[in-house]
Amino acid sequence: MFDDLNDLYQQVILDHSKSPRNFQKMEKANRVAEGKNPLCGDQVTLYLLMEDEIVKDISFQGSGCAISKASASLLTESLKGKTRDQVKRLFEEVRAMITTGKITGDELGKLAVFAGVHKFPARVKCAILPWHAVVAAMEGKPEPVSTE
Ligand code: ZN
After folding, report:
1. How many angstroms is it from 64 CA to the middle of ligand 1?
2. What domains does the chain contain, in order, with CATH numbers?
3. Sign of CA dihedral 144, 104, 82, 74
4. Which of 2-6, 12-16, 22-26, 112-116 bottoms out in mean pLDDT, i.e. has the lowest?
């Protein structure tokens, strides 16, 4: 599945899927949301500590494919310290990049490793899953989100 992905991007994704960052439950979290991608079997729970509209801390737990795990791991690294509005803007940029392969804006940073995912339509939902979950957590939605 990685054949067409740039080697460097592939390495970053594999690294984050094998050793995910911020991979733990957060007891002090004040926002939690769960996301599921039934097509692939991915499951992710996002834990957020929000203070004054700012992501003070963020972590996740879950199981699934390399893409969903790496996406959640890089997401937690990218969102710490961001405001609610910044998170939403980044979500839109990531969604556009993952579905079209085009990188817009200059805030994506390391998240650009997922640009190649658009060539694998079945994997788009894996990559976007943690983003749906983090937005749901910020909005305080009680129901689990699903990509279906
Ligand atoms: Zn998946």
Report:
1. 6
2. 2-146 (3.90.1010.10)
3. positive
4. 2-6
The single-letter code of the amino acid at 50 is M
Question: CA torsion sign, 33 to 124 to 21 to 61?
Answer: positive
Q: Model's pTM, two decimal places?
A: 0.92
What percent of the chain is modeled with pLDDT above 90? Answer: 78
Q: Are strands 31-37 and 145-146 parallel, antiparallel or unpaired?
A: parallel
Instruction: Count other C-beta atoms under 10 Å from residue 105's C-beta.
Output: 12
C-alpha triplet 34, 105, 72: angle, nearest 5°: 20
Q: Residues near 78 by Cβ (< 8 Å), separated by ≥ 6?
A: 90, 109, 110, 111
Cα of 34 vs centre of ligand 1, distance in Å, is 15
Q: How far is the CA of 30 from the centre of ligand 1 (A)?
A: 27
Give the residue with greater pLDDT, 125 vs 6.
Answer: 125
DSSP string spanning 48-92? Answer: EEEETTEEEEEEEEEE--HHHHHHHHHHHHHHTT-BHHHHHHHHH
- 52 Cα–ligand 1 center, Å: 33
